[in-house]
Design brief:
The structure holds 2 protein chains of 2 kinds.
Chain A: H1 22-35, H2 42-50, H3 54-59, H4 62-76, H5 82-87, H6 106-112, E1 131-134, E2 153-164, H7 166-169, E3 176-185, H8 186-190, E4 198-204, E5 208-210
Antiparallel strand pairs in A: 1-2, 1-5, 2-3, 3-4
Helix pairs in contact in A: 1-4, 2-4
Chain B: H1 2-14, H2 20-33, H3 36-48, H4 50-58, H5 60-65, E1 76-81, E2 86-91, H6 100-103, H7 108-111, H8 113-118, H9 123-129, E3 139-144, E4 149-154, H10 166-170, H11 175-179
Parallel strand pairs in B: 1-4, 2-3
Helix pairs in contact in B: 3-4
Classes of the chains: A alpha+beta, B alpha/beta.
C-alpha cells in the first residue's frame, strides 16, 4: 500500500500495551505454534493474509487478519472444517502432524528462527553500484515487489545473498534467488511529490533487469 | 473475536495440533524477554565501543547475536546509522516486518495503513506527526522491509553523555529512535553520571 493516500494521520498510542485484548495473545501464539508444524511456509501465511479481499483486509485489526488467515490455511489443508470452527468441537479425525511445538522447545525455536539464506546455485547477475530497473512485475499470485517501484530505475546498494524466493515459496515451491538491496531515488518514484530522498527496497533477482 | 479465538484454540488442542502451554511460553517470551530494551543495549554498546560499532555496521547479524539477541524475524539484520547528514526510517509497506529479537513485537501504528502507505512518499510529514523535525538539508532514506532482511536504526548519540555507562545510555534509546520515527532522548540537565 506504499504511496496510497487518504488513510489519515499516523496515530501513535501513548504507553501502548503489547496486546489490546487477551485473544490477541492467543492469536499470536496459535499462529506461531501452527507455523512450527511446517504445514505452510511463512510466505504462504503472508499470502493468506494479503489475499483477503481488500475491503476486509483494510477494515480488520492486525491480529484479526492473522486469525482469519490461519483459519483459512487450516481449512484449505483440511486440517479442520468450517463446521468445526463454528463451535470449536472436533468432528473429523485429526491429521497426523510430523511435528508440533512442545513447550520445552519454545525458547530454542524462537531463538533459532528460520534463516532464509541458501547455498548459491548460480553467480549473482548484478553487482553493487549497478543500475537496474524493477520489472513491470504483476503476477496474479503473491509477490513482494511493491507496486510503487515497478518499472522504476534504481541502483544496487547491497548483495544480501541467495535467499528463499518469496514468490515461489508462497506457491509451495522450493526456490531461492539472489537478493539485492536497491536504492530508488525519491523523484524517480514519485516525481516532485515527495519528501523522501530515496526509498530502499529488497528485491530478488527475477524482479530486476539491467538499466 | 474472543469467542472465535477460544473456539479455534480448543479445537486445535483437541486435535493435538497445538499445546496450550507452548502458546503460553511464546506469549511470555514476548511479554518479558524480547523487547526494545534488547535493541537499546545494542545501540548503547555501539555508542560506547568503537569496534562493536564498526562490526554492527558491517555485520549486524553477528554483532547483535554476540549480545545474545537472535531468532525469529531477526535472522538477517542490517544496522543503519543516523548522522547529521542522513536520517533513516524503516517500514514494511507490504505487511508488518519488524526486527523482533531487538525490538519485540511491533506497535499498532507501525502495522497501520496510515504509516505503511505514507512514510515512503512523505517521510518528513510522518516524522512531524511523531514530533521529529529534520533540518532541510538532511537526506531522508526510507527502508521498506520487503524480504527477510530486518533493519535496526542506530540513532545519533545525544551530546552531553560523555563518560556515561552503557546502562545509562540505554535509558536514552527509545523504540522509535531505532525505527527512525524518533530521536534518542536528551539527557536531563545535570543528570548524574
Amino acid at each position: 500500500m506504499g504511496g496510497l493516500q487518504s488513510f489519515g494521520p499516523v496515530e501513535p498510542e501513548p504507553n501502548e500495551p503489547l496486546f489490546h485484548a487477551p485473544w490477541e495473545k492467543r492469536a499470536l501464539g496459535l499462529t506461531l505454534a501452527m507455523g512450527a508444524t511446517r504445514q505452510w511456509s511463512i510466505d504462504q501465511s503472508r499470502a493468506a493474509r494479503e489475499s483477503l479481499p481488500p475491503a476486509t483486509y483494510l477494515s480488520s485489526s492486525y491480529y484479526k487478519i492473522w486469525v482469519t488467515a490461519l483459519e483459512n490455511l487450516m481449512v484449505q489443508r483440511q486440517l479442520i472444517s468450517r463446521e468445526e470452527l463454528a463451535d470449536g468441537r472436533s468432528r473429523m479425525s485429526p491429521v497426523k502432524l510430523a511435528r508440533t511445538l512442545k513447550p520445552e522447545d519454545v525458547p530454542r525455536a524462537l531463538a533459532a528462527g528460520s534463516p532464509t539464506i541458501r547455498e548459491a546455485q548460480a553467480p549473482a547477475r548484478f553487482t553493487q553500484g549497478q543500475h537496474v530497473r524493477a520489472k513491470d512485475w504483476n503476477p496474479f499470485t503473491h509477490t513482494r515487489l511493491p507496486r510503487y517501484c515497478r518499472g522504476k530505475r534504481g541502483t544496487i546498494v547491497s548483495v544480501h545473498g541467495f535467499h528463499v524466493f518469496a514468490d515461489a515459496s508462497a506457491q509451495g515451491r522450493d526456490e531461492s534467488q539472489w537478493l539485492y538491496g536497491v536504492r530508488f531515488e525519491g523523484e524517480e518514484l514519485w516525481g516532485s511529490f515527495t519528501t523522501a530522498s530515496a526509498v530502499y527496497v529488497d528485491c530478488w533477482e527475477p524482479y530486476l533487469e539491467p538499466a | 473475536m474472543d469467542l472465535r479465538v477460544r473456539a479455534l484454540e480448543s479445537l486445535l488442542v483437541e486435535k493435538g495440533y497445538v499445546d496450550s502451554s507452548a502458546i503460553d511460553r511464546v506469549i511470555e517470551t514476548y511479554e518479558t524477554k524480547v523487547g526494545p530494551r534488547n535493541g537499546a543495549r545494542v545501540v548503547a554498546k555501539a555508542w560506547s565501543d568503537r569496534e562493536f560499532r564498526a562490526w554492527l555496521l558491517q555485520d549486524a547479524s553477528a554483532a547483535i547475536a554476540s549480545l545474545g539477541y537472535t531468532g525469529r524475524q531477526g535472522e538477517h539484520m542490517v544496522a543503519l546509522e543516523n548522522t547529521q547528514q542522513v536520517h533513516n526510517v524503516v517500514v514494511c509497506t507490504l505487511c508488518s516486518c519488524y526486527p523482533w529479537p531487538v525490538l519485540g513485537l511491533p506497535p499498532v501504528w507501525y502495522k497501520s495503513a496510515p504509516y505503511r502507505s505514507r512514510v515512503v512518499i512523505d517521510p518528513r510529514g510522518v516524522l512531524e506527526e511523531f514530533g521529529v523535525e529534520l533540518a532541510p538539508g538532511v537526506e531522508v532514506r526510507v527502508w521498506d522491509s520487503t524480504a527477510e532482511v530486518r533493519y535496526l536504526v542506530l540513532p545519533q548519540r545525544p551530546a552531553g553523555t560523555e563518560g556515561w555507562s552503557e546502562e545509562q545510555l540505554a535509558d536514552l534509546v527509545t523504540r522509535n529512535s531505532m525505527i527512525g520515527t524518533g530521536l534518542a532522548k536528551q539527557p536531563r540537565a545535570g543528570a548524574a553520571r
